[in-house]
Amino acid sequence: MSAEPPSRPRPAPAPADDPHAVLGLAPGAGPAEIAAAYRKLVRRYPPELAPERFAAVHRAYQMLTSPARCMEAALATPEDELTRLFPLPALTLRPAPPPPPPVTVGDLEPLLAPVRRAVLARLLAAGVRWGG
Question: Is the model's pTM score more than 0.90?
Answer without folding.
Answer: no
